[in-house]
Amino acid sequence: MDDCIFCKIAAGQIPSRKVVETEDVLVFWDIRPTTPVHCLAIPKKHIASLDKAGPEDARILGSVALAAAEAARQLGVADSGYRLVANTNRDGGQEVFHVHFHLLGGRRFGWPPG
Ligand code: 5GP
Ligand code: ZN
Q1: C-beta neighbour count of 15 within 10 angstroms
Q2: pTM of this prediction exceeds 0.90
């Protein structure tokens, strides 16, 4: 999609700090990290949000989750633990409408979220 910032990152038109990349998926550092480890896991295919994903996207979304888990291992937070978050639509706080999972780690999180 032409005006989507994450499509441009996926295509290499905007630089990013990549952690894991496959043919279909990219995990890269968030530009404004909120935790010691803060990456974004995206499909290279444009899907606006989890709310817009369909059954045809099941495989790619599984690949995104597995790539996030691989990034967590590479970044050394798999054993201590981490959180994967997909902010969705207004109440979820979604700002970029290309589906993504935040990989958050390096500190302990409370539950439930505030
Ligand atoms: P959302 O609120 O949509 O779940 O989160 C979007 C995330 O994308 C934010 O954490 C923001 O810092 C990150 N972000 C926005 N623009 C860029 C960018 O150009 N590069 C990178 N690496 N992250 C970005
Ligand atoms: Zn996109």
Answers
A1: 9
A2: yes
CATH number of this structure's domain 5-105: 3.30.428.10
How would you class 18 by CB atoms within 10 Å of its CB: exposed for 0-12, middle for 13-18, buried for 19 or more? middle
Query: Which of 100, 96, 102, 98 is closest to 47 using CA atoms?
Result: 98
Q: Residues whose CB is under 5 A from ligand 2 (ion)? A: 1, 4, 6-7, 46, 98
| C-alpha span between 110 and 89 (Å, rounded) | 23
Cα of 81 to ligand 2 centre, how many Å? Answer: 29
Distances (CA, A) of 14 to 8, 69, 89: 6, 24, 24
Q: Chunk the chain into consecutive blocks of 10 residues (it has 114) and report each block's average pLDDT, rounded to whole numbers.
A: 94 98 98 98 98 98 98 98 98 98 97 88
* All structural domains of the chain with their residue ranges: 5-105
The residue type at 54:
G
